[in-house]
Amino acid sequence: AGWPCLQVLEDGSWMQHSDRLDVHNCRSGMRIVIAKAETLGPKTTPYTIYVMHIKTAFTIRIISRRYRQFKELDHHLKSLMSSAPSLPCKKTFGKMSPQFISERKRQLQSYVDA
Predict the structure, then answer these.
(1) Is the pLDDT of residue 13 over 50?
(2) Most buried residue, 29, 38, 65, 74, by CB count within 10 Å?
(3) How far apart are alpha carbons 45 and 98 in whole angstroms?
């Protein structure tokens, strides 16, 4: 649970970056790049993780997250601000196809860029 290395859902995690946060212009001084998507797990229940590089002026952290964790983040953001960007829709069937994973990666990048 949560986002190790950078606990995005916890207010305290932003404290080390507070001097670089510009809330009024929505510029955090951070850049999140979804570098790749990987399929893991057994053949009966595979799942996809998205590997992200979180860059600040002084650090680069690499974390990986599943779609459901993006959904948790989205829920939290929407509770804080009504203008939060829309998360790509969940898909039940065909979600393991390489084309879908590539498109979902692109959509998630647009989400974190917004």
Answers:
(1) no
(2) 65
(3) 16
